[in-house]
Design a protein that fits this description.
Elements: H1 2-15, H2 27-38, H3 50-64, H4 67-71, H5 85-91, H6 94-115
Helix pairs in contact: 1-2, 1-3
Biased composition (Basic and acidic residues): 101-130
Subcellular location: Mitochondrion matrix, Mitochondrion nucleoid
Organism: Xiphophorus couchianus (Monterrey platyfish)
């Protein structure tokens, strides 16, 4: 019976879209990793709780099939902030994350320069000789 569950999860992983802009933060990639770790032995894996496995599959299948989007349609394609789905996609992309990380480094460096007695470019201090 676990062979059937394994095949169903594999099919779900194939159908689940990947977002290449998010690289390591993509839900599809995470799902594939979790299925691989849960079914280490492939079709021969013995599951501790088959009912919980079935519930998890059904939940993921509903999300992938947009069941909740169809059941609860949105009036507008924006959030409460007024940001569209495309703008959110851009903000959450890997390139935007990388630029934010670079910006944080710049802020950290400027704070260090402001509060330290010497600039970081001077290099490490030498200990006084005895």
């Amino acid at each position: 019976m676990s062979a059937t569950r394994y095949r169903r999860f594999l099919k779900l992983c194939e159908e689940w879209p990947r977002d290449e802009t998010k690289k390591a933060r993509d839900l599809g990639t995470f799902l594939r990793q979790r299925v691989a770790s849960a079914f280490r032995e492939g079709e021969n894996t013995q599951l501790a709780d088959p009912e919980k496995c079935d519930q998890m599959y059904e939940s993921l299948a509903r999300i992938n099939g947009n069941a909740y989007r169809q059941r609860f349609p949105r009036v507008r394609d924006t959030s409460f902030t007024g940001v569209t789905a495309e703008e959110c996609r851009v903000l959450l992309s890997g390139s935007m994350q990388q630029s934010m990380d670079e910006e944080k480094k710049g802020l950290w460096k400027s704070l260090m320069e402001r509060f330290s007695s010497k600039s970081p470019e001077d290099g490490p201090e030498k200990a006084p000789e005895k």
